[in-house]
Design goal:
Helices cover about 15% and strands about 35% of the residues. The chain is α/β, with parallel strands linked by helices and about 280 residues long. Helix 1 links the parallel strand 1 and strand 2.
Length: about 280
């Protein structure tokens, strides 16, 4: 099986739990028997032929897998290929359920996978389905347009088994790391995830109270008396004495003052313009 990875869509952070989203996708595709991978990535990825899509076309043939970077998938390219062959579609795309369908491209289909309606970023109050395009497309035509993978008459869409996450903003990035540390995204071949869901690449005081999952990057400073629950501390961040953080993403190089109480049900952002999005 051959594949081209389109990497225009990316996450807001270069790394996630010991790798990058693109490298994780490459590993996943290889685990499912993809032997020839082409990509427009600017990352240095072993065994991947770096080129633009036009240059790769002559090597891909008429039956190949298009994979869109920016997402973490454990869905099977082989399952998608088999469904595509059964439907005799020119293009067959993968679907997955999302808790935030308004952030993605939703697709309504009939029972045979024929697309009935496509909507990009639908208003939350009017969202008709939680099935979203999850970044894989089986291509069986020689005039595929990667900019509009769904805009063909003979395109089908199928719900595949396996998880799919899109860490394309800060909240989703935090939640994706939380899912990795809880082993809900499995396997994670890039590093060992311990049973307790805690990885610290910097030393932390013995008295630090830890609840839930925790990721602490390199060159971080955590002072005495802190409580951390379901937190991600990116490289070079510091947490001063007696701070209590829950569901918090501390940005790289961020400084949390002493006695900070950052206690949110879903997400707190700290260390970067008070957590405001740019």
């Amino acid at each position: 099986m051959k594949s081209f990875i389109f990497t225009k869509k990316s996450t807001v952070f270069p790394e996630i739990c010991g790798t990058t989203v693109v490298k994780d996708l490459i590993t996943h595709l290889r685990n499912f028997g993809v032997t020839h991978i082409f990509s427009d990535t600017i990352e240095d990825c072993d065994g991947v032929i770096t080129c633009n899509f036009e240059s790769a076309k002559q090597h891909l043939g008429t039956c190949w897998l298009a994979a869109y970077g920016g997402c973490i998938t454990r869905q099977s390219p082989a399952e998608l290929r088999d469904l595509a062959l059964t439907s005799n579609a020119d293009v067959a795309v993968s679907l997955s359920c999302s808790s935030k369908p308004w952030e993605h491209t939703t697709i309504l289909t009939d029972g045979k996978g024929i697309i009935e309606k496509i909507e990009n970023n639908p208003p939350p109050e009017n969202t008709e389905t939680n099935l979203c395009f999850s970044g894989l497309a089986w291509v069986a035509t020689d005039d595929f347009d990667p900019r509009e993978p769904l805009e063909r008459e003979r395109t089908s869409a199928f719900l595949l088994s396996g998880c799919w996450k899109c860490p394309d903003n800060r909240e989703n990035y935090l939640l994706t790391i939380h899912d990795i540390m809880r082993r809900e995204i499995f396997p994670w071949p890039h590093l060992h995830i311990p049973d307790n869901g805690i990885i610290t690449r910097s030393s932390i005081p013995a008295g630090t109270e830890i609840n839930g999952t925790l990721w602490v990057g390199t060159n971080c400073l955590i002072e005495n008396g802190c409580t951390l629950e379901n937190c991600v501390l990116l490289d070079g961040s510091s947490i001063a004495k007696n701070s209590n953080l829950r569901n918090c993403l501390v940005m790289a190089g961020g400084n949390i003052p002493r006695n900070t109480l950052q206690y949110d049900k879903y997400l707190s952002l700290a260390g970067d313009d008070n957590g405001r999005e740019h």
